[in-house]
Design a protein that fits this description.
Keywords: Signal. This is Long-chain fatty acid transport protein. It comes from Pontibacter indicus. By secondary structure, the chain is mainly β. A 14-stranded antiparallel beta barrel has the order 2-3-4-5-6-7-8-11-12-13-14-15-16-17. The longest helix has 14 residues. The chain is elongated and about 85 Å long.
């Protein structure tokens, strides 16, 4: 039965894989800057529930793509899929609105190659763009003429990740990954001028549209060292360095005349094309953790990335330095309990605080959240077919401020996914 369920589940997920490339995050005004809203959780729902902490927390039953060096700990084949979403309230000094969305977030397949070497293939978002901002005003010298301005953006950049982790010596593992970044970001600004003093005036929207296609490779290197410090006590230290890259970009732009239903009137005007690159800076993530080798893990993590030298295709400076600090823990009361299901559930919690790369009106945009989660085993399984795992997470956070005419986002974050473990290439003696 488990084999049939696995096949049906994998087939249905593959049909939905396009959703990873069409990531939507609900109306997020700050995603209009740079490459959009960056995905800072490079692990899975496990790390998301621990405050995005995962660079030094290896796990045998879930592929930890946050640090390729930790892939070594996957001694069995792992298929992992996750869906996440946000429900948020956006507000400025005088107005507020609610929005939200949910999408397939990652697909990961981890496979052990030898006793010292494991690898993983993953598809996940690198960045997401989704915003819609409207402003109503009037012409400076003609108050009867109302100007409705609208700014919209959608799309994002996806990451196809291929990583490897190898044990070099007792406790020491090294890893490396190569990722192909690809995707299209569409942005437009439009205006409608309605003069109430002119009867039977024909209204139309004039829009400036940009569609930018990005593609290139990114490389990361990781390391982790785990040492026993006492009976049932281990310390781990891990780090990941992402090399900077010049991300190839091709932008097509034009002016368009549209009716109020956004139908195109005539052909696009003044079409233009620019082909260049934008610089993605290097980043460094470091983490230390404690575990008892059985059912308790406590970890903290720090990440930094300097976007100060980033320039868009027009040569404009948009971003600054970013960092993130996280703390997380997980606990399983009794992984082998047979008298209580809830003793076999893994519970998680975490905190994160950081500064995003966005600088708007002189303000650095901060982001903070408290998170939680759990892994619920499904079925008892056996040596050849370990049980399914249902992973859930949730969190509450705040980003931005209403000072300086800016927008604050209060959001509830949620996620759910399934991990399927299986032992491949093992010949059974009795069927």
């Amino acid at each position: 039965m488990y084999k049939t369920l696995r096949l049906l589940f994998c087939a249905s997920v593959l049909c939905l894989a396009q959703g990873v490339q069409a990531q939507s995050i609900g109306n997020s005004p700050y995603s209009r800057y740079g490459l959009g809203e960056l995905n800072t959780n490079l692990g899975n729902l496990r790390t998301a529930g621990m405050g995005d902490v995962g660079v030094s927390t290896g796990n045998s039953f879930q592929s930890n793509t946050a640090n390729p060096a930790l892939l070594y700990y996957n001694s069995i084949t792992v298929f992992d899929v996750g869906v996440t979403g946000r429900y948020k309230t956006l507000k400025n000094a005088s107005q507020s609105q609610r929005d939200g969305d949910a999408n397939l977030t990652y697909l990961t397949l981890g496979v052990p190659i030898t006793k010292r070497w494991s690898s993983a293939l993953s598809l996940r978002p690198y960045s997401s763009v989704d915003y819609n901002i409207k402003n109503v005003g009037s012409l400076p010298n003609r108050q009867e003429a109302v100007v409705i301005s609208e700014y919209k953006g959608e799309g994002g950049i996806s990451e196809l990740y291929f990583g490897h982790g190898v044990r070099i010596a007792d406790g020491l593992t090294l890893g490396a990954s190569a990722s192909y970044l690809f995707g299209t970001i569409s942005q437009e600004s439009s205006s409608i001028v309605a003069d109430t003093s002119i009867s039977n005036a024909s209204l139309e929207r004039v829009a400036y549209v940009e569609r930018t296609r990005y593609s290139d490779f990114m490389f990361r290197a990781g390391a982790n060292y785990r040492k026993k410090i006492a009976d049932k006590a281990y310390m781990s230290a891990g780090a990941v360095y992402a090399l900077g890259t010049d991300l190839g970009a091709k932008r097509n732009s034009a002016y368009e005349r549209r009716d109020l239903g956004d139908g195109l009137k005539g052909v696009p005007m003044l079409p233009d094309s620019v082909e260049s690159s934008v610089n993605v800076p290097p980043s460094l993530t470091a983490s230390i953790s404690y575990d008892n080798g059985s059912n308790l893990t406590i970890a903290t993590e720090f990440m930094t990335q300097d976007w100060s030298d980033y320039r868009n295709l027009d040569g404009e400076h948009e971003l600054g330095k970013s960092y993130k600090i996280g703390f997380g823990t997980e606990f399983t009361p009794n992984p082998t309990a047979i008298d209580s299901y809830f003793k076999r559930v893994t519970y998680r919690g975490g905190l994160r605080y950081g500064q995003s790369p966005y600088i708007v009106n002189g303000e650095n945009i901060k982001d903070m959240a408290v998170t939680g989660g759990a892994t619920l085993p499904i079925g008892r399984g056996n040596y050849f077919e370990p049980p399914f795992q249902l992973n859930i997470m949730m969190g509450y956070g705040k980003r931005g401020t209403t000072d300086q005419g800016l927008i604050a986002e209060n959001y509830f974050q949620f996620g759910a996914g399934v991990t399927i473990n299986s032992r491949w290439f093992v010949k059974r003696r009795i069927e």
